[in-house]
Design goal:
Blueprint: H1 2-17, E1 22-29, E2 34-37, E3 45-51, E4 57-63, E5 69-74, E6 79-84, E7 88-94, E8 100-108, E9 114-116
Antiparallel strand pairs: 1-8, 2-7, 2-9, 3-6, 3-8, 4-5, 4-7
Length: about 120
């Protein structure tokens, strides 16, 4: 009986925390620089993004075999959800002259490379 209760408590704890199966991050981006999420081979993923800063962010997708598409401008304090296809990077560009701050919640394939450019 104790084993069943302990297992049930562990199951409830792990599922209610919501930390498994998603990546949560608050990322700062220098002025005129970009943050690249997923510039490697991976499956599709979905990103909930909030611009926490005072500068406008430019978001677009870049397949790893070249090109860019689907640009979106995100104003300060604005939130969006972006679906990114298999083997494409999500590029977050700080267009302003001040540091940008962005909150990310990523679901789907989390085997994503992350870098600044």
């Amino acid at each position: 009986m104790k084993t069943i209760i302990a297992a049930l408590a562990l199951l409830i704890l792990t599922t209610s925390c919501g930390v498994f199966g998603s990546l949560n991050s608050n990322t700062s981006i220098k002025p005129k620089e970009t943050f690249v999420l997923g510039n490697n081979k991976h499956g599709s993923f979905k990103t909930r993004l909030k611009n926490e800063g005072v500068t406008t962010l430019k978001i677009y997708k870049a397949p790893i075999d070249g090109g860019t598409h689907s640009p979106i401008l995100i104003k300060p304090q604005e939130s969006i959800t972006v679906k990114t296809e298999k083997n494409a990077a999500l590029i977050i560009e700080n267009t302003g002259d001040e540091y940008a701050s962005v909150t990310l919640k990523v679901k789907g394939d989390l085997n994503l490379g992350m870098t600044y450019k």
